[in-house]
Amino acid sequence: MRAPLGDFDDAAPALDRLDRLVAPVANAVRTWRGDVPADQLIHVDTDPEIADTAVFVEHYGPELLDASANCVVVAAKRGGETSLAACVVLSRTRVDVNGAVRKHLGARKASFAPMDMATGETGMEYGGITPIGLPAGWPVLVDPAVADTEWVLIGSGSRRGKLIVPGKALAGLPGAVVLDGLGN
């Protein structure tokens, strides 16, 4: 199979690669429900040593720069309680944690979750966190630019491999809200 973007030697429907996905992502793909069919979720095998965006794009194709998205975990605090949310923005933008995210979550304070918290709560590797397979009930904030991108390259839950999915699939995830101003 040829991936819809990038120059990858090894691409296949994610349903055929469940053994290469971390448990929460494999379960989400296996039980996929949404407007986008599960066979449109593509897994590409990648070298974990070049997982960071700049080097990744140089190796796998410059068109990936405009189609790559990051999923970051944010810890929101209010009244002594901490809740977690995921934010998905194109890799060339930053998450507006102290503005759009804090306001949307009704938090007094919001910040990027510490690495051990993000990986522990998601069951995913740092640098590979994806919005597919997050814990039930988490808000998934998606920048409109991500939702409007035909094909988006995101993490697969580990640093080895990526997922390529239609942007509208991310906007249709459980708990997803397309939030204006999320990325800047």
UniProtKB/TrEMBL annotation:
Membrane-spanning parts: none
YbaK/aminoacyl-tRNA synthetase-associated domain span: 48-170
Family annotation (SUPFAM superfamilies): YbaK/ProRS associated domain
UniProt xrefs under Gene3D superfamilies: YbaK/aminoacyl-tRNA synthetase-associated domain
Pfam family, one: tRNA_edit
Gene Ontology molecular function, alphabetical: aminoacyl-tRNA deacylase activity
Protein name, entry field: YbaK/EbsC family protein
Organism per entry: Streptomyces beijiangensis
